[in-house]
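## retry 2 of 3
previous attempt timed out at serialization; input unchanged, resubmitting
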Amino acid sequence: MKKRTIIGLLLLLALFPARGGTAFPVLKSLVLPGWGEYSYRSESAYIFWSSEAALWIGFAALRYSAHTQNNDIQTFSTLHAGIGIYPQSNQYWADLGNYSSYLRHRERMLENRTPEKIWTEDYRWEWDSESAREIYRSLYRKKELTLLSSEFMITGLIVNRIASMINVRYLKQKDLQVSAFALPVAGGGVLQFGLNF
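## retry succeeded, writing output
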């Protein structure tokens, strides 16, 4: 509770300007990359805002894609493995692709002396063909890769904040302006960075 209150107060302090006209630019960059640069009227703020927007859009698109792929996996396994109900467990979906049937899964768990990992009879399955199980495994791997990619977007959001905070400290200490310019041209584009002393 105290931790949340302190974080809330720090965020509120970042919203109100101090005597010099800029209030906690580093904290502003932590909240929204580019906001701290904007306090110094640096054009690099637009670069950080653009990258932040692109990362959030990418994250949302990948999560939506994973959700859609998960629905496809459920439908496919219902049609080809005969499952009716299923638990909300990633391990179940992995086991579904690793074993041709519930009975084979059960045998293997008993051989490994891990009866606690055996699913209940309610979640039994049996693939109608080996090729259907391989297709399922491919679909499952694609979904997992999509989820992993969305986690990389989160890493990008963190790196963007760190870079923005470093840039704000640099702007504060050097009192210089960093500018960037992007221009699309045929066959590519031009990105130009500049420093004004």
